[in-house]
Amino acid sequence: MLQCASSPLPPPLTVKPRLVRNYLLPFLLLLLTLGFGYGGYLISEGAGTRTLIETGERQLELHARGVESEISRYTYLPSLLELEGSVSRLLVDPTPLHRDRVNHYLEGLNRRAGSRAVYLLDTSGRVLATSNWQDADSYLGEDLSFRAYFQEAVNGRPGRFYGIGSTTGEPGYYLAHGLVHGGKIVGVAVVKVRMESLEERWEKARLQAFVSDENGIIILSSDPTLRLKAVRPLSDQDKERLARSLQYYWWALNEWQPLSRHPLGDGVEEISFPPGEHAGSHKPLSYLMQTRQLSDTPWNFTLLTPLADLRREALMHGVLAAVGFALFAFLLIAWNERRKVIATRLAAREALEQANNALERRIAERTADLRASNQHLREQIRERRQAEDTLRKAQDRLVQASKLAVIGQMSTSIAHELNQPLAALRTLSSNSVRFLERGKLDVASSNLEAIAEMVDRMGRITASLRAFARRADDHGQATLSKAVDAAVMVLQGRLSEVPVALHRDYPDAQLAIDQTRLEQILVNLIANALDAMGPQLDRQLWLEGRSEGDGHYRLVVRDNGPGIPQDARQHLFEPFFTTKPGELGLGLGLTLSASLATAAGGSLSVAYPEAGGTAFELHLPLLPAMETPA
């Protein structure tokens, strides 16, 4: 670009530097910009692909182990039937009585295990008993000797088979085991398991994955359109063999054909699909496909990771690289051509630094404000927790006061219950001394036994009062029958004053509430019923209960009293509201009972039967059923 001033040049040579600068240099810069952009795209795509492969390997291992775990959950179940005596008796002597017993046993086993079906085959492949013996599509009497799992199991090998049922057309995973009796195989136990939960789990996780079996058929997939397609070409012999086995019922088993496949490593491929297979897409879509074989089974688990976002990001990085180089070239030319531009750039940089400093100061101020707000929120949370603790303690004290009030109301009956045994104790003890002096040991012994029985009775009364008066927690576990017995014991004095017909119609249950609190609720409800029936001659009290399908238990305490007045019904659960005279009630029994039921996760409500009287409905959660060994 430097011109020599000492020797004149011919006119054609004097225009060459200008031509290079005006024409060749922009073309060269354009080529370099495109080269930097393409290089940035390739580098970003390679790094992103490696990252996706590493991330995909972790997800592949995680979800593959989930599939293996789901498969191995039921492997023990077919062999479990070998321990059941009724199964062996049915296989040896297939009478209707034995078949009925095994049908009921398999029905219960299937329900507890959560499988699709459990059935028993004889050595000829005919179903002798099944868990769905009551259904219209029962397997009972069906000939399944053509199934591969039966042929494997009857020869002493574990049968593992995924197929579509020939009766219901429902897919499932079959596990078969040969049952041995007297040293030889006398039948085959089969468990059918549905594995749709894995597909639902993948759909919720937005995971694109599928499982292919030993025949290369996709049997599980997060995309329903891929199910029962072949991942590899099937020969005519394979299609005929699969059609004859009815493993996949009458499905066409179309081939799954990606547009292109490029191996990237062991078990890793890049595949693409035509746009017609994906709604809303006008370009072929590419995926990173990673495959891993599952343990203890010839199945393969495949994970598909979309590459569209990766390539979009790589394209962005390439554009940034090209723009960066172009900017660098522009700055270099500008610095070489004009120093003023450099000064302007320096001034702009200084202004940018000032703006950055101002922005940092504003960020610091905002951070301080946020810290102050956060501290204020923490103080509010602490105050609210303290208020909740205070409210809970007040509620506990109110509950305890209600207990003591109930005990105070029952003090007369309790004194009467204790005075009678005390008077009898005094009489019997005096008589025992006289009989001992006269040498009548047998009469004295019977008196002492009567004294012991009265002391036990007094002890039960005082023990019930101590248990009713002690403090308790919101949660725990309670036995319904024990709580009813304890409440009846506490109210024994009132129940003995005026005859009451007590009807009990409830199955015993384990409830998720403290035993003492359940007793207190029952004492309040039964005492209210006794007060409502008053002095009427016919006094009937019903305790009726049943389990509900939502994991709760419903207990109804119903009386045949005159009922609750219409104007008082909407105020029943309000504190200090009562229809009793002031000396008989504080108006806290129903309020505290409803509060205790709510604290345990239940509820207390009232109903008014058409036959008359009042019915209080207590809903409480049941304890989770404990698993019992099969």
From TrEMBL:
Occurrences of domain Histidine kinase (ranges): 413-624
E.C. numbers: 2.7.13.3
GO terms of molecular function: ATP binding; phosphorelay sensor kinase activity
Cell compartments where the protein resides: Cell inner membrane
Primary site of residence: membrane
Membrane topology: Multi-pass membrane protein
Coiled coil: 342-404
Any one GO CC term of the record: plasma membrane
Catalytically driven reaction(s): ATP + protein L-histidine = ADP + protein N-phospho-L-histidine
Superkingdom classification of source: Bacteria
Class of enzymatic activity (EC top level): transferase
Regions crossing the membrane: 23-43, 314-335
Keywords of this entry: ATP-binding, Cell inner membrane, Cell membrane, Coiled coil, Kinase, Membrane, Nucleotide-binding, Phosphoprotein, Transferase, Transmembrane, Transmembrane helix, Two-component regulatory system
PANTHER family membership: C4-DICARBOXYLATE TRANSPORT SENSOR PROTEIN DCTB, SENSOR HISTIDINE KINASE
Name of this chain's protein: C4-dicarboxylate transport sensor protein DctB
Organism in which the protein naturally occurs: Pseudomonas nicosulfuronedens
